[in-house]
Amino acid sequence: MSVEAGHAPSPSEYISHHLQNLASSTQTKIVDFSIINWDTMFWSIAMGVLGCFLLWLAARKASSGVPGRFQGAVEMLVEMVEDQSKSIVHGNRAFIAPLALTVFVWVALMNSLDLLPVDLPSRVIEWVGLSGIITHHRIVPTADLNGTLGISVGVLILMLYYSFKIKGAGGFMHELFTAPFGNHFLLWIPNLLLNLIEFCAKTVSLGMRLFGNMYAGELLFLLIALLGGIWSFGADASVLGFVGHIIAGTAWAIFHILIVLLQAFIMMMLTLVYIGQAHDHH
């Protein structure tokens, strides 16, 4: 973290610095699609490549004999995703089941970056001499609302695609104007409004749910990291702060493992539910 010489950052400065992304330019508007958060892009792509590599490695080493631990874990995950997709999506799952598996693995890997020490990325950047170029860095893509809304917009596109594919353009438009209140000509406006609101609500809630949980987790890790510094008013207090930091950090990290996997599972399940609803006729 870059601070002025002789000036130690205050807790608010420390947290504000760690919650800023490395952006292509300064954002002055609430919505600005011209700005790119390079750290979110880098880590999301890196975790996507790592997830695909792990799944490819499991498929490459798969055998009909007694599976190893890695193969057994992947087979359990595949069976779980297949069972869930079979019970939710009533149609061809040749693309949807692998998609759900990819979503789970990808989101779980991105979430797991939150378990790394909060100051480790900045220290590595300083060690390699790039602190002058990379002035800010956030390592958790799912703690950035841009990243989670990007995933949810992708799910929205798939929802619309399968709605057109399964029902046809005419069937989809008919459902858009007649569900849920019926096909009376006076009801097509409220039907259309409710369906548009439903699509928007699904997209926003899908992204906001993941973002809110991971942002809260990231913020709590930052507060725990400050614990030792806040209590360093003497030798005894410093030791107490360090011990409290270790205990609180360890406890929250263990609990956060459940959040990491649970949020990945919820994202996968909601993806299946929303795509499954696109297969159903009203």
TrEMBL record:
Protein's organism: Pandoraea eparura
GO terms (BP aspect): proton motive force-driven plasma membrane ATP synthesis
Protein name from the UniProt record: ATP synthase subunit a
HAMAP family in the record: ATP_synth_a_bact (MF_01393)
Role description: Key component of the proton channel; it plays a direct role in the translocation of protons across the membrane.
Gene encoding the protein: atpB
InterPro entries registered for this protein in UniProt: ATP_syn_F0_a_bact/chloroplast (IPR045082), ATP_synth_F0_asu (IPR000568), ATP_synth_F0_asu_AS (IPR023011), F0_ATP_A_sf (IPR035908)
SUPFAM superfamilies in alphabetical order: F1F0 ATP synthase subunit A
Alphabetical UniProt keywords: ATP synthesis, Cell membrane, CF(0), Hydrogen ion transport, Ion transport, Membrane, Transmembrane, Transmembrane helix, Transport
